[in-house]
Structure prediction request, 451 residues.
Amino acid sequence: MEDLHDIALTVNGVHRTARVPARRLLSDLLRHDLGLTGTHVGCEHGVCGCCTVLMDGDPVRSCLTFAVTAAGHAVTTVEGLAAPDGTPSPVQRAFRECHGLQCGFCTPGFLCTVTALLRETPRPTEDEVLEGISGNLCRCTGYQNIVKSVHRAAELLAESGGEA
Amino acid sequence: MKPPPFRHHAPRTAGEALGMLADAPQGKVLAGGQSLIPLLNMRLAAPPDLVDINGVAELDVLHVGDEGVRAGALARHARVERSVEAAAVQPLLGRALRHVAHPVIRNRGTVVGSLAHADPAAELPAVLAVLGGTVEAASARGRRTIPAAEFFKGPLESALAPGELAVAAFFPAAPPRTGSAFTEMARRHGDYALSGVAAVVTLDEDLRVGAVRAGYLGIAPVPLVLDLTEAAGPRGDWPAAAAYVRERIDPETDIHASARYRRHLTGVLTERALATAAAEALRRARD
Prediction:
């Protein structure tokens, strides 16, 4: 029987605990142990970007992070991007407005990546957008509308005074 | 897939980490995990123990001095890449880091981890090699400093012994009248490069080309460093240097590119990188 570790971390502002084996990936902790299935798992080796979440504000691959390593940190998933009353964030609104998604599988990863990108670079150039989302794969959209969504999200954020 | 089972050790100090590694000679060190965890997820590696150094604050250091940049084992790519101080002392490091995978990977991956992984297709080993940097290794038995030329033994094989922890890497500062450049070609943005070059050009006091070195990734089992000073000559004949490189290298054919294409590409990249590095050297010499 594998040893189990008791871990505690903050997920979307809520204190959460779990008892997990050391090999539990953060992505599986979120989905299986905590029931937050908004984080999607595509390739499970760091290439596709679907499982991207924010750890202490920085986007990271949850499939390349162990739950035991994430203990004590603050994780934000796609479920934590909207306002507490459910109002979509500016990034989420921009993706809806610009049709920045089709099947939606890659979208949680894009939303987390872009949320952090715009926090750091509020008015990104086209090149900065392309570089910023280069680690997220989308098989439906051809990226045109995703890039538009990022620029639109930057506008919405500027209008709202920068509150992501 | 999911990683195989392992025992997880979470030291709080470097000393504790060394003790744990001494007790688990087949164990691996987990820092950023951006190379190790894919290997585990694909079950290409199954170490019985992982010593997770993410909680060791004393390793999360980046020291920049006149003599160079010293990155501790937990200094993540993103931090080193954004360090204005590091860029002032050794600009080649940040230039190469921008080619390492994607920004999100760079938020977790560490400079020292990338060196310890010793992937011949990776950027940082070539940078450490061309700059003549060093890796500081520690174990329960003591510490030693390993020059880059002795650190990379083969594909994914470093000089680190079982029980040893790479605690830091040192990248020497750029000397006066020196410029550098990094360029690579990959099939897809952020992918492993088909070939890449880190070039360093130093001018003499009369602004003639004094020293030319190039470090290569993706074309040899370990980072390859070539001294191109003679081939380029005092006037900086970059096409001649590129021709010399094409003759000297022996790249392999794989699914991504033929050996012939890699040889040609490496020459083109060499010429570009040397010209860029020389232009910077001239700017710095005149400042």
Summary: Helices of chain A lie at 26-33, 67-70, 90-97, 107-120, 126-132, 144-159.
